[in-house]
Amino acid sequence: MDGIVEVAGGRVRGVERDGVWAFSGIPFAGPPVGPLRWRQPQAPAPWTGVRSAAEFGPIAPQTPPIPGVAIPGDPVEQDEDCLTLNVWTPALDGGRRPVMVWVHGGGFTTGTGASLLYRGGDLARHGDVVVVTFNYRLGALGFLGHPAVADGDDGQVGNWGLADQVAALHWVRRHVGAFGGDPGNVTLFGESAGGMSVSALLGAPAARGLFHKAVVQSGPPYTHSLDRARRAADDLGTLLGLPEVTREGLDRVPADQLVAATAELQNRTPRPGELPLPFLPVVDGRFLPRRPDEAVAAGEAPPVPLLIGTTRDELTFFVLGDRSTHGMDDDGLLRMVGRSAPDVSPERVVGAYRAARSARGESVAPLDLWVAAGTDLVFRWPSLQLAAAHRVRQPATFVYLFTWESPAFGGVLGSCHALEIPFVFGSVRRPAVGAFTGSGPDADALSDRMQQAWLSFARGADPSHEGIGLWPAWDPDRRATMVFGHHTELVDAPRDPELAAWGPLSPAAGPDPAD
Length: 515
Description:
By secondary structure, the chain is of the alpha/beta class. Helices cover 31% and strands 15% of the residues. Helix 10 (330-340) runs parallel beside helix 12 and helix 11 packs across helix 12 (366-391).
């Protein structure tokens, strides 16, 4: 077999490695440059001959990787012409395999679908599925929400990166059959900003029908209002030295200056109750008619099966480099909780977490209390709210909690943000990743259990399998949760006593914490 496949634009030749065909750097849209900045993605230009798909394409403009933290082997070349995707398939035989489309994270400002963490060969090989990853526009280029750059044709404001994701899904629907996949069985999954993107696309009319199952890993449905998005854009314009935000002025700003100004914007202390993310999906009334959680609760989102969850210690990933949390005492803890959640009593929240953790024999040091409370506030509680909203109209709702601990930095990360990703993709077996995840028979066994759960869900909308037993659907009363860790087991309402401090489990009842 020559590994040549016909796609929009022309023919591409993949590379066969260890029984899996890999196709890298395939354009799914044209370069979003010049007049196409802050516009809908367009079809790629055709090419002649056979295009090599042996190398990943450039990544979206973003800040350089942090020395010592970057993953060796990840692409580093940046270009606004970044809209490419990658496909891994067990065979080019016209089969009808489940398709798993991954959305990478990175706070909507960094990342690439070509990261070593997300290489899809292991999933494709062990699960007999087709795996697709892709790049999308990031930062100001992907999510700048200001009326000055609204699309004149349909009025869309912001969400350019989400529009790229929809374009990638359209490409999958049109072409994945030629790679041995079933366009009628597509699972969209992602983590962090990628999970938030999946949550957002649940409420995006443009994405309806393009995916049939959803997996949200540490990705609550955070959005910005138009006012919040405009404020971020105005602040960016000030940093760029623009007298006012206009399309003409922004068009003249090079991508690297937009990236630098975005990084400076991220370093500012957010207002009370706001996330430190200057760019998010925008409820613009067009691409996102309303908040995704509200759309789900109102039955306006497609009732696709949903698998959703978080890690136990999400916040350690962020507080490790946050000097403001070093040496935190009880007063500092109360101030942090009060600033992050101004609508609740910090004394009540801290008291609830101290009591629950004491009863379990866990540390009640101020920083550990903040990690626990902040993890629930930012990630777990809004994820459960989305699960509750989804469960009203779709019984196929499954919830997990990841508790495996990282050995990195002497173990201070615990079960941190993003730690579950290599277990899902099987990349725990890569030496460059094992230092973060841990390695050995126990890590391999956990990876196998998680992979098979995700694969079972992709095949039949039920993550149960022999390795973990029955995984029943979640409901707001029992709250059956699969806990993945050194001991994988089904637990009803794990670590839930303290969650009541945030209020009732009532989907879409409160303001979006991102605003």
